[in-house]
Amino acid sequence: MDEEKYTLLREQMLREQLEPRNIDDPRVLQAFRKVPRHLFIQEEHRHLAYRDHPLPIGEDQTISQPYIVALMTQFLELQGDENVLEIGTGSGYQTAVLAELTDHVYTVERIQKLSLQAQKVLHNLGYKNISFKTGNGAAGWSDKGPFNGILVTAAAAAGVPSPLIKQLSPGGRLVIPVGDKFLQELRLIIKEKTGIREQRLCDCRFVPLIEKISDLN
């Protein structure tokens, strides 16, 4: 499939999947229009890149459907000058979208193979405002914080990890799936002067956030 066809599929994705579901931030839509999602997907699945469902990326991980990526991104309300932390680099697609929208993205991935694959694609696309780390995402990246926005692409079974809340700057926004493999909900956490405010966004389905070694069993 040539690049012109992929461009048309991206426009169709915006028109049929994002805009009808109230993804209306012009900057978010432009990022989705620009980032070549198919390059972040294994070649055998590339023809499905712009469909309305998740896809496997190897190592028992997935790339989320475009709408969920857009929804989570839009709720960060990025203006362009923020430091953003992403937990779960995965394919690197969400990382690229964030890099289009903000000053710098710090992204953590526990699976080194996935991190290296994502780094290669993002480097080839010319992104220079991304820093990568392999390790425990639930611990965040404390020496690079605080962060104006934090986005987590794996479900925290025991609730929002406290290190992530601590690394959120005043006025900052955290979007995270919470729940076990049977029942999850996407939440927005806002750090206000008076404390933490939580908002339930929607039901969702993500791979689990690995918070300690015993969770791997």
Can you offer a commentary on this structure?
By secondary structure, the chain is of the alpha/beta class. It has one domain: Rossmann fold (3-Layer(aba) Sandwich), CATH 3.40.50.150. Helix content is 29%, strand content 28%. It has six helices and nine strands; from the N terminus they run ααββαβαβαββαβββ. α2 packs across α4. The longest helix is centred in the N-terminal third of the chain and has 16 residues, at 3-18. The termini are far apart.
Considering the chains and any ligands shown, give keywords for the structure.
217 residues; alpha/beta; 9 strands; 29% helix; disordered C terminus
CATH class: Alpha Beta
Secondary-structure element series: HHEEHEHEHEEHEEE
**How many E strands?**
9
Low-confidence stretches: 213-217
CATH topology: Rossmann fold
Mean pLDDT figure: 92
Structural class of the helices, strands and pairings?
alpha/beta
Q: Would you spell out the secondary-structure blueprint of this structure?
A:
Layout: H1 3-18, H2 26-34, E1 55-58, E2 61-63, H3 66-76, E3 83-87, H4 93-101, E4 104-109, H5 112-124, E5 130-134, E6 147-152, H6 162-166, E7 168-179, E8 184-192, E9 195-204
Parallel strand pairs: 3-4, 3-6, 4-5, 6-7
Antiparallel strand pairs: 1-2, 7-8, 8-9
Helix pairs in contact: 1-2, 2-4
